[in-house]
Amino acid sequence: MGFWENSFYIRLSDTQKLPLCATRNPYARELKPLVFADNLAVNYSRCNNQDSQANAVKFIDYMSSVDTKLWIAFSEDLDSGTPPQRALPAIKAFYDQP
């Protein structure tokens, strides 16, 4: 957890553009491609009515949309000229885009 977020900003500030490496953890036999997934935890005591639940579903739909995934993956939420993110969205429809 946190490798993707940190590696993006480390890479962004690295003037030498040195390669980033991932190492195997003791529980894995090989490296796998890095993907990101968004998670949302809903606090039932704060989100216990239909309006709150409907708003949570709308937010989940927005964050899960291909347009939002493209916006984040290609750093369109950051300053102009910022390189694309290094992680791959874990949503199949993302890869059906041109």
Describe, in short, the structure shown.
With 98 residues, the protein is mostly helical. It has three helices and two strands.
Any overview of this molecule?
The chain is mainly α and 98 residues long. The protein has helices at residues 3-13, 50-64, 66-73, and strands at residues 35-36, 88-89. It is built from three helices and two strands. 35% of the residues lie in helices and 4% in strands. The protein has a two-stranded parallel ribbon. The chain is elongated, with a radius of gyration of 17 Å.
List keywords for this structure.
98 residues, two-stranded parallel sheet, 3 helices
Largest sheet: 2 strands, parallel
- N-C termini distance: 29 Å
In what range is the share of β-strand residues?
A: under 5%
Residue-averaged pLDDT: 76
Question: What's the helical proportion of residues?
Answer: 25-40%
Low-confidence stretches: none
Query: Tell me, what's the shape?
Result: elongated
Q: Would you count the extended β strands for me? A: 2
Structural class based on helices, strands and sheet pairing: mainly alpha
- SSE string: HEHHE
Topology:
Layout: H1 3-13, E1 35-36, H2 50-64, H3 66-73, E2 88-89
Parallel strand pairs: 1-2
